[in-house]
Amino acid sequence: MKRILAFALAALVSGASLGQMMGGRLSTSTYFPMVDGARYEYMHTGGPWASSTMVVRGGQTWAGQGGLYAMHATYTCNIGVPCATDATDFFGMGPGGVYHYGGIGMDPAGMQYSMMTFTSPEWILKDPVYPGSMMAGGGYANAESWTAPVRGSGSMMGAQSYMSSYFAQGLETITTPAGTFANVLHVREQRGSGAIRDVWYAPGVGMVMMDDGIQVAKLAGYTMSGAVGQPAGGAAALPFMPFNGLWWNPDESGSGYNIQVQRDVMVVTMFAYTAAGEPVWYYAPGRLAGAGAGVALSSTLDRYHGGQCASCAYVRPTVAGSDGAFSIVFDSPVSATVHLPGGRTTRIQPQPW
Fold first, then answer.
1. What CATH number did the domain enclosing 139 receive?
2. Is 4's pLDDT higher than 60?
3. Which helix (H) or strand (E) holds 19?
4. End-to-end Cα, the chain, rounded Å
5. Does residue 210 share a domain with residue 258?
6. Sign of the dihedral through C-alpha 225, 230, 236, 238
7. Average pLDDT value for the chain
8. Are 259 and 209 part of one and the same domain?
9. Statement to judge: residues 25 and 124 lie in one domain
10. Do residue 101 and residue 185 come from a single domain?
11. Are strands 206-211 and 245-248 parallel, antiparallel or unpaired?
C-alpha cells in the first residue's frame, strides 16, 4: 500500500553506538514524542512535493479510538506539479509502542479525496526494541523485527487486510538541514507484499528522514512546547534554524541567495544585477536573533569587484561599497521575507531541484 500522507514525513552516515555494539534493548519511548503544538518542517526531493509543514494536536478521536494525536501536514507542490496539499494522520500509544490508526487527505481544492480507517492499526514502532549491530562488511545483523496484522477500510481502496513487517536496522548518525542527530533509530517497513520504505527516528525529536524509493523527506526545522533539544545538546536559543542552501523567489528567476548557518551565525551571498544589467554579487554576514515566533538577520549588503575570473590566476576581490541596510526575517525554516536597500521586499523559499 503506497498511501503517503503526514505519516510519510520523516545524508546518512552509518555508525552503531557503543551501547548497541555491547548489546541490549533500546527504549523507544522518546523516539516518537507526541507533543501538543509541536511543529515540523521538511524538505522533499523526488515526488511531487517541495516542502511540508506538520503540526501535532492532542486529544483526538479516530476509528473509535480516543486519546490520539493528530498530525496535520500542509504541503507545497513543486512548480507545475499537481499534488495533494493537506493530510491528517492519527497516532497513539498502544501495547508495546506507537500505532497508526489511519487518516484523511484533501486535494488542492480542499475536497476530501481519501480516508483510511484502521480497526486493527499499524504497529509502527516497538517499545522496547533491539536494534541490529553494524557488520564489518556493511549492513546490520541481528535486527529485531515485529509484525502487525492490519485491517481497515479506505475510501479509495475499499477493505484492507495485510501484514506489516518492521525491522530495527540499527542506530545511526543522520545529517539533515535541521542539524546532525546521533543515536537515530533506522526502521525498515514493509506493508503487505508491496510498499517498502525506510524511516529514521531521533530521540526527543521524532522522524528526521524518510525514503520510500521515490521521494526523500528530511527535517529542516522543528519547534516544541518548552525547551527544544538541539543536536548539540542543551536548550535552543532560537525557535528554529533556517534551511541551509540556495533560496529564491520563483517569480524572480535569475537572482537568488545562498544561505548558510552554523550555530547562530548566518552568511548570505546574493547574486543579482546592477541597474545597467551587469551581474554583481553581495555578501551579508551576521548573527541570527529572535523575531517574535521567527528569526532574523540584520546586516549590510556589501558589493565586491575585481576578483578572479574562472580561468585566471587568483586575484583577491575588494569591497566596492555597500548598497545599504539588508535583513531577512524567517517565519519558518523554509519561508522568509527579504528587506532590500531602497525599501523593496521579496518573499523567498529554498530552491528545489
1. 2.40.360
2. no
3. helix 18-21
4. 27
5. no
6. negative
7. 82
8. no
9. yes
10. yes
11. unpaired
Q: Are residues 260 and 218 in the same domain?
A: no
Round to whole Å and give the CA distance between 147 and 189: 10
211 and 333 together in one domain = no
Domain with 312, as residue range(s), is: 245-350
- Say if CB 198 and CB 185 are below 8 A apart: no
Instruction: Tell me the CB-side half-sphere exposure of residue 261, using CA atoms within 13 A.
Output: 24
Cα-to-chain-centroid distance, residue 45: 11
Q: Letter for the amino acid at 53? A: T
How is 220-287 classified by DSSP, letter by letter? EEEE-SSPPBPTTSSB-SSS--PPPEEEE-GGGTT-EEEEEEETTEEEEEEEEE-TTS-EEEEEEEEE
Secondary structure class of 7 (helix, strand, coil): helix
7 pLDDT tier (thresholds 50, 70, 90): very low
Look at residues 88, 110, 242, 128 and name the one whose alpha carbon lies nearest to residue 177: 242
Could you identify the residue written with the cell 521521494? 215
Q: How many CB atoms lie within 10 A of CB 13?
A: 10
Q: What was the pLDDT predicted at 158?
A: 65
Residue 27 cell numbers, joined? 527504549
CA distance 295 to 290: 4
Asked if residue 128 has a cis previous peptide bond (ω within 30° of 0), the answer is yes
Q: 149 and 116 in contact (C-beta within 8 Å)?
A: no
Between 170 and 288, name the one with better pLDDT: 170
pLDDT digits (tens, 9 = 90+) for 9-63: 432 223 333 333 334 689 998 999 988 878 898 999 999 999 998 988 888 888 8
Radius of gyration of the chain (CA): 23
18: left (phi over 0), alpha (psi -120 to 50) or beta: alpha
Give the SS3 label for residue 75.
strand
- pLDDT category at 101 given cuts 50, 70, 90 is very high
Going by C-alpha positions, the residue among 214, 213, 217 that lies closest to residue 200 is 217
Averaged pLDDT for residues 296-320:
87
Give DSSP secondary structure letters for 86-127: EEEEEEEEETTEEEEEEEEEE-TTS-EEEEEEEEEEEEEEES
**How buried is 71 (Cβ within 10 angstroms: 0-12 exposed, 13-18 middle, 19+ buried)?**
buried
